[in-house]
Design a protein that fits this description.
By secondary structure, the protein is an alpha/beta fold. The chain has one domain: 3-Layer(aba) Sandwich (Rossmann fold). It is 18% helix and 26% strand. It contains five helices and eleven strands, in the order E-H-E-E-H-E-H-E-E-E-E-H-E-E-E-H. The strands form two sheets. The chain has a nine-stranded mixed β-sheet with strand order 2-1-3-4-11-10-9-6-7, with helices on both faces. Strands 5-8 form a two-stranded antiparallel sheet. The chain is globular. The two termini are 15 Å apart. Bound molecules: glutamine. The site of glutamine has 14 residues, from strand 7. Glutamine binds next to strand 7. It catalyses: N(2)-formyl-N(1)-(5-phospho-beta-D-ribosyl)glycinamide + L-glutamine + ATP + H2O = 2-formamido-N(1)-(5-O-phospho-beta-D-ribosyl)acetamidine + L-glutamate + ADP + phosphate + H(+); L-glutamine + H2O = L-glutamate + NH4(+).
């Protein structure tokens, strides 16, 4: 079982993801996007960074790399796919997930720790938590404000496809605990299947005990789920 971490020009969290996954005993390898998906791929990470300098829109160019057609096909076969930060932007730009991550309300790059409320505990990415649990993970982005048409957001909410929301330490959400102005405090969403998820915060940076909180480990443990799930 090998998780492919796809490196685009300008990815910069690929090695963080590799180290975090290996720390959890999950086999992972960095794959240059032009090389295509390896045969034995059992999971895919779209890592954070600034692919193609965030020109045009963050994630827009990486989403058009030919490997993304392979990623979409693997995702529809049930291979778990996790997009983190720039990877979340690439996920939305490539149609793996709905909505868009756009310029923070502050119009600034924000690098801080945030609290997230786990909205579901029955997905591979959140099975390690309880529904309503609050976890602490870092954010580091300039374009993390989740945006989507109100009607479509209502549908996604009705379909239970919101995975994480920004909240305070007690799990309360609202505008005062919304670091980037995301609609309804959305920090992470699911794709068509629960095996596809994107989120702006960085679980891979909250995994190694030597560098701070380890609340992100549970998200990465989603790759331990069988692809038949
Ligand atoms: N850490 C990241 O992946 C950065 C994401 C993105 N390039 C942004 O600033 O919004």
């Amino acid at each position: 079982m090998t998780v492919a971490i796809i490196r685009f020009g300008g990815s910069n969290c690929d090695r963080d993801a590799e180290r975090a996954l290996k720390h959890l005993g999950i086999d992972a390898e960095i794959v240059w996007h032009e090389d295509g998906l390896p045969e034995d791929t059992t999971g895919i990470v779209l890592p954070g960074g600034f692919s193609y300098g965030d020109y045009l829109r963050a994630g827009a160019m990486a989403a058009r790399s030919p490997i993304m057609a392979e990623v979409r096909e693997a995702a529809s076969d049930g291979v778990p796919v996790l997009g983190v930060c720039n990877g979340a932007q690439i996920g939305c730009e490539s149609g793996l997930t709905e909505g868009a991550f756009t310029t923070n309300e502050s119009a600034r790059f924000q690098c801080e720790h945030v609290y997230l409320r786990v909205e579901r505990d029955d997905t591979p990415w959140t099975a390690a938590y309880e529904e309503g649990e609050v976890i602490e993970v870092p954010i580091a982005h300039g374009e993390g404000r989740y945006e989507i048409r109100d009607e479509r957001l209502a549908e996604l909410e009705a379909e239970d496809r919101i995975l994480f929301r920004y909240c305070d330490a007690n799990g309360e959400t609202g505008p005062e605990v919304n670091p980037n102005g995301s609609k309804h405090n959305v920090a992470g969403v699911l794709g068509d299947r629960d095996t596809v998820a994107v989120l702006m915060p960085h679980p891979e940076r909250a995994t190694l005990p030597d560098v701070g909180p380890t609340d992100g480990q549970g998200v990465l443990r989603g790759f331990e789920t069988s692809i038949d799930a």
